[in-house]
Amino acid sequence: MEERNLIRGTIGISRHREEILKELKRSVFERHTISGRASTGYNVSERVVAEVRFYADNNVFTGSIQTAYERLLERLKL
């Protein structure tokens, strides 16, 4: 996904958008150059693909996703 598209949708209006994206870039996403373009993009890191699939199937955070969620709760005082 192109970096500029990370703020599309519901996250784009969140007051916590920057903190959430910062944590996801740190814990879940990996940066890469988009082939044939000068822009940067992000994809789910290979090391967390199974965790993302588990979340999609079961609606339960595990591993790096759970850690990111807990860090965000603490940082955002939620």
Description of the molecule:
This protein has 78 residues and is an alpha+beta fold. The chain has 3 helices and 2 strands. It has helices at residues 17-27, 49-58, 63-76, and strands at 29-33, 40-44. Helix 1 packs antiparallel against helix 3 (63-76). The termini are far apart. The mean pLDDT is 92.
Strand order, main sheet: write it out: 1-2
**Structural class by helix and strand composition:** alpha+beta
What is the helix/strand order? Answer: HEEHH
Radius of gyration: 13 Å
Please state roughly what percent of the residues sit in beta strands, choosing from under 5%, 5-15%, 15-25%, 25-35%, 35-45% or over 45%: 5-15%
The proportion of residues forming helix, as a percent range, comes to 40-55%
Shape: globular
Give the integer mean of the pLDDT values: 92
> What is the rounded distance between the termini?
28 Å
Question: Largest sheet at a glance?
Answer: 2 strands, antiparallel
Low-confidence stretches: none
The number of distinct helices, counting runs of at least 4 residues, comes to 3
> Strand tally, please?
2
